Amino acid sequence: MNNWREQIKNSIITIEDLCQYITLSEAEQIALKNKKFRITPYMMKLITEYDSNNVLRKQFIPLGDTTSFNYRADYLDELKFQPIPNLIHKYKNRVIITPTNKCACYCQFCTRQRLTYCDSKLHFDKQKILNYIQENPTINDVLITGGDPLMMETNELITLIDSIECIANVKIIRIGTRIPITLPMRIDNELVHSLQKYNNLYINIHVNHPLELTPESKKAILALANAGIPLGSQSVLLKGINDDFSTLKKLFEDLICIKVKPYYLYQCDKVKGCENYITSPQ
User: Fold this and answer.
1) For residue 192, which of 151, 184, 222, 264 sits 20 to 30 Å off, Cα-Cα?
2) For 214-242, b where at least 16 C-beta lie within 10 A, e where not — what string?
3) Tell me, what's the pLDDT at 163?
């Protein structure tokens, strides 16, 4: 199934669907009563055929009950720094835009579960956000994230980037995405050709484990890199998944081999629903 839209259409989103592929543990069954999940057929195949240590399974299927914890949904207080819905202005020279709450797969440790797990369509007032950026000349760095912006239709995404690029004070535009890992067939020729025209665009790819770098994902990543788009990686330190030196060393070396500069590794945020993934960085 190489069509990305068909992948989304056939995503595994119910427990009944999930049980056709794997046998759920008791802890997973309990957790699934309280958490949403979405897994593309592509990622499900990796989980069932290659994931012997469950490093992928743990990321997309909740590990266990977290109701005894008292973490907040907005641990980073992003709503406090949201002058306009779906625009976060926490630091003087940069803003975050969240034009969509859709993702190809739901990471169970997502910082913005309050957004990505919401069933209703995001109300995104693009013009109001553009006006805000233009009226605040200290803003020179715009991060487009979500959700995952590469879930948007190509023409819709390019229209947004074009509008941002036209603002004189904006010098850097960044996209944060997990799509090359969870839905690599989305990185098609139309998208790559559309993105390569920008001189100030950077893409950071969310990748946590070497097993995620399959032939398909490497092909997608190299398509972007070979089009001249600067690529970095962002990884979350996850308990029992990548919290050891050898795994991270291999991950970063593998990324360098496909023209991705390891950008940052960050500790899992103490967000409601992420409790079972948090580990000490020491």
Assistant:
1) 264
2) bebbbebbbbbbebebebbbbbbbbbebb
3) 98
